[in-house]
Amino acid sequence: MTIEWYPGHMSKAHEQMAELVRRIDVIIEILDARLPVSSANHLLAELRRNKPWVKVLNKNDLADPGVTKAWVRTFEQQTGIRALPLSAKQHREVLQLPKLCLRLAPTRGKPGRPLRAMVVGIPNVGKSTLINTLAGKAMAKVGDKPAITTCTQQIDLRNGIILSDTPGVLWPTMSDQNAAYRLATTGAIGANALDYTDVGTFAAEFMLTRYPDQLMARYQFTELPEGPLPLLEQIGKRLGCIVSGGGVDLHRAAEAFLRELRGGKLGRVSFEEPEPAAPHLESSGEAPEPEKESENERSVNPCETPC
Ligand code: G4P
Q1: How much is the pTM?
Q2: Predicted local confidence at residue 9, as pLDDT
Q3: Which of 38, 82, 138, 252 is the most exposed place for a label (fewest CB within 10 A)?
Q4: Do residues 135 and 157 make contact, with C-beta atoms less than 8 angstroms apart?
């Protein structure tokens, strides 16, 4: 199935953004650290007007750490661009952002001369979470359904910085369907615009190729299923996605698998790496580090992720 998704308010948001960029000092672009190319707004470079540009690599807690380091190096080779990996839920990490913005616009952030920053990002990338963490209270709606914010709003952080929060914007035609599928895998595309079995198959294929050890660890496979559909079937069995008669409900299996992948149950995963593959890339490609859970808890528990 071809993925297309461009709700009406997004076209208006692009026009607002072009107008707004004239009046701000710094652009804050929120990217998904797991897919910093596909989650970028490719029209932003045209609108930019040479303003300092911070690329926030959000959801860093879910991304492969070695790959994120390589992305930071890649982005910072570009003039006027700084890259900042963080998790929008972590207050201490988020506090680096205002400090960086003030360094990029040193004449601003003073009484009577606030620093104005435009915050942009595709739906579901964590823009509202980041703004709420920065503001110290709920200023923007957070949700797991993409495209919740539909108009630009101003937020005075009361530290010399005023944010303009723009609605989550995608672009009119998803000419790169691989990128569209990566976006769908991470939850940036509305559920009504995708076929879960297709997206689950895409994600299963990717994981088999790139993070087989993490699949083995999560689902306690002794050997990997050969191909994405057998993999989804095996996962469906483990998660209890069974129809009457004993077969696997592939749709529900794909949905449950994507929920696990998006929630970090398969460990830290990045869907895009800088091109060409940098020799210094320190990607682990290994089973996830046990952080809060013990080794046994990290393996799938059907009760934990019911189908
Ligand atoms: P948006 O404004 O860009 O559309 O995104 P929003 O902040 O609403 O966040 C979308 C989802 O992503 C939310 O999940 C939010 O909690 C989660 N999220 C945002 N930033 C991070 C991050 O740095 N790390 C992780 N792991 N998740 C992040 P949700 O399903 O609504 O979850 P929750 O509110 O139950 O946590």
Answers
A1: 0.85
A2: 53
A3: 138
A4: yes
